[in-house]
Amino acid sequence: MKNPITIEALTVLDAIDRRQSFAKAAEELNKATSALSYVVQKLEEQLNITLFERQGRRSVLTHAGKVILVDGRQILQATNQLADKAKQVATGWETKINIAIESVIDKALFFNVLSKFLLVHPSIEIDIRESVLNGGWDALEHDEVNLAVGVPSPVPLQKGFRAVPLQSIDMIPVIASTHPKAHLAKNTTAFKAELKNIRRIVTHDTAKINVTRTVGLIESQQTLYVQNIEQKISAQLAGIGIGYLPRYRVEQYLKTGELIEINLGDRNIADCFLAWKIGNKGKGLKALTMFLSQSGL
Q1: Spelled out in words, what is the top-level CATH class assigned to the domain 96-167+272-293?
Q2: What is the CATH number of domain 7-91?
Q3: pTM of the predicted protein model
């Protein structure tokens, strides 16, 4: 049996309810008042209910009419969104962009750029996941994401990736001032001699298929694995162990003395990239990569 509740009927009910008048609703919909009356009458007959009642000069929904319109408006919204998505796809604009953002990236700056992009392209849905080390490349290669933000060097060869350099990140080895070995932090020789006895804090590489990796203090024989940079900072502040952290993330703790920079006699600069597949021609992705590549991220 054909459902009598059509998009046209819901549109008519919505307009009459908002305008409180058949005549004003007809004007809004650019239809004759008699045409709206016919739609309502036909629906009432098919459902065997009354949808509107007169209150003075106003046409007011009955309880049954309100029930239909509450869910009906959700249907109207969904059909409008569907139409918008179809238009986007037909014109080359994606409905959704999946993003992997590297754990060490400045999230505040990233979301500031993203907010500007969404002001211009509000209908594009964004889905963000966090990645660590090879995890972003892995997700990009296997089409789990469309864009990887802050993925580390080296850029995998012969994978069909386009990679644009972002700002490099100064990664520094730090130790909590409360750690038993903190007094050795500025003595390079003495600290290196103790490395194997000091627990290192490592963020899990989120790669599922490609080879995972770690960077930094490989001499340590004790390891605590964490999920992201926030957990790593907390663990190191608690004095559990040592590890490399982005300077911009721990500057405040260096100033307060809660963390101490370890003098290991070298620098660790992390090269980061904005990457996507060359074959992805989506206009939304192109616009977003332009926003991000020009942001100073």
Answers
A1: alpha beta
A2: 1.10.10.10
A3: 0.70
